[in-house]
Amino acid sequence: MDSKELVYLLKIGIINENLEIYKGLFSDTLPSEIKDPYFIDAISFFNNLPDEHKRIFFSILRQVMIDSISNVLGVIDGSSSLEEHDGDFSLLYEGKSLEYLQDYFLSQFE
Amino acid sequence: MDSKELVYLLKIGIINENLEIYKGLFSDTLPSEIKDPYFIDAISFFNNLPDEHKRIFFSILRQVMIDSISNVLGVIDGSSSLEEHDGDFSLLYEGKSLEYLQDYFLSQFE
User: Fold this and answer.
1) Interface pTM, i.e. ipTM
2) Of A106, A40, A50, A60, which is closest to residue A79 (Cα–Cα)?
3) What residue segments make up the domains of chain A, in order of their start?
4) pLDDT one-digit tens code per residue, A3-56
5) Which of A15, A71, A93 sits opposite B14 (nearest CB)?
């Protein structure tokens, strides 16, 4: 697997897949089925949205997933740093270095 | 930096920081200032939420960030796999291997 293949798999295996999971969770969960306070609030929030806003809600979740994965890849690439740490990360797949992950990842959404 | 330090920095440097950025963007952006269609929809969506639902909205965004970063760390750890690829990733910081990232990361939110 090279860098481009990895970022493609992150897109389909995390972003696309989680989006389907969220759509199922928000659309199909009955308030009576849940006990977790966060989830009760979240389902009530979703059920109160007009249909057109449900579509926008999921597009926002998708963008938030893109942003957070991009930020992690930026840290791994070394294009962004965490606090005062300026040492180098390297990500290897089967011993082979993967680089420019953030750029390749974001180019899929342009 | 060891694994525990990295996941702490991902929490404060990505999740907490992005949450503040999103709060600022959604709360302080005037519709007249924006041209991007996604963002126009997103701001209109947010401005139509009752105040109590704005709080829930941000808690959902926080959970989505936690989920997606956790998923990436699971791939790096090898605890989840991408399609049919079952080779090993390794993440190094200054040549030193970082492991159990997903578990350490998620334990911060229990």
Assistant:
1) 0.96
2) A106
3) 3-107
4) 999 999 999 999 999 999 999 999 999 888 899 999 999 999 999 999 999 999
5) A71
